[in-house]
Design a protein that fits this description.
Helix 1 crosses helix 2, helix 2 crosses helix 3 and helix 7 crosses helix 8. The chain is globular. The longest helix has 13 residues. It is of the alpha/beta class. Strands 1-2-3-4-5-6-7 form a seven-stranded parallel β-sheet. The protein has a two-stranded antiparallel ribbon with strand order 8-9. The chain has one domain: TIM Barrel (Alpha-Beta Barrel). It is built from twelve helices and nine strands. It starts with about 25 loop residues before the first helix and ends in an 11-residue tail after the last helix. Helix content is about 35%, strand content about 15%.
Length: about 325
């Protein structure tokens, strides 16, 4: 069956509670509406992306029932002391009555100053303190709460005192950063994993769109390498949020395929043969030098739980 003839295929996951290219506003809204009309039912955004108003407009005008759409947004570190105010900001920007999943964008807290400054892991408000305040938000205006860019280390700390388990943990996940330990850990705790940059990008070496393995598997299933990468993640029980303004790619990316067990094993092992690569290490906005050492917004990779003191990857 030719790829363009495959029916749209989506996978629904049940949660435990039941800035890229600069584009004109009209293009963004139309691409989101096209995605929703093509069968997509999950939209991911964040206050830092600056496009919540456009997402809200698309949701309101697409013709798809609001109850059928899952809207995810995230608030930045300078709202860790007042997540309630952050919720008000997002709801107003979106122009919606409620948010389906409201997330802490990073475990890193920041000062509510201009410009915001990162706080140390033990400085108040910590992500644990922010989470306790987030728990009070769950209700008519906020259906569920989650986290983003958390690891086993930060989740263990959070879960020590949490009364609500995060519904979602959104993390960077692709063949060169497959999170083979983090995904099952989250699933064992009832936390659903959502992946960003599943198609690679930002200089990933020989990424999924060009890697020979993905090309070959794509040919075997009569689909694109992108669909192979997305299908690999979804088959692991992970939600994906591919981004595109091209209608053809939007329509193609939703046509998932079922990969054979040996194909899944081979993709899981790609990072062992080619090397590990973390896109977050190369996003300029995340890079900050502290005491002459590189950090992710002020925290070391050990503090984030990405690596141990010897540099071994932990996720």
């Amino acid at each position: 069956m030719a790829a363009e003839q495959r029916p749209a295929c989506t996978k629904t996951f049940t949660l435990n509670n039941g800035p890229g290219v600069s584009l004109d506003d009209e293009t963004v809204v139309k691409s989101i509406v096209h995605g929703l009309k093509s069968g997509y039912r999950l939209i991911d955004t964040a206050q830092l992306y600056g496009n919540e108003p456009l997402v809200g407009e698309a949701v309101r005008t697409c013709g798809v029932a609001r109850s059928d759409i899952t809207v995810v947004t995230k608030f930045p570190g300078w709202y860790h002391g007042d997540p309630s105010a952050a919720l008000d900001v997002s709801l107003k920007a979106l122009g919606l009555d409620y948010i389906d999943v409201f997330m802490m964008h990073w475990p890193i807290s920041e000062t509510p100053t201009s410009p915001p400054q990162p706080l140390r892991p033990d400085q108040s408000p910590t992500f644990v303190e922010a989470w306790k305040k987030m728990e009070t938000l769950v209700g008519p205006r906020c259906k569920s709460i989650g986290v983003s860019n958390f690891t086993q280390k930060t989740l263990e700390t959070l879960l020590e005192t949490a009364t609500i388990v995060p519904a979602v943990n959104q993390v960077e996940l692709h063949a060169f950063n497959p999170n083979l330990k983090l995904v099952p850990y989250c699933q064992s705790k009832g936390i659903h994993v959502m992946s960003w940059r599943t198609l690679g990008g930002l200089g990933t070496p020989d990424g999924p769109l060009g890697n020979g393995l993905f090309v070959d598997i794509g040919k075997a299933h009569d689909c694109s390498p992108a669909v192979v990468s997305l299908s690999w993640a979804v088959q692991r029980g992970v939600s994906v949020i591919p981004k595109s303004i091209h209608y053809g790619r939007i329509e193609d990316n939703i046509k998932l395929v079922t990969l054979a067990d040996d194909e899944m094993i081979r993709i899981n092992a790609v990072h062992e043969k080619i090397g590990k690569f973390r896109i977050a290490d190369y996003i300029p906005a995340l890079q900050l030098e502290v005491d002459g050492k590189p950090t992710i917004r002020g925290w070391s990779k050990v503090e984030l739980g990405w690596e141990d003191a010897q540099g071994n990857w932990l996720t």
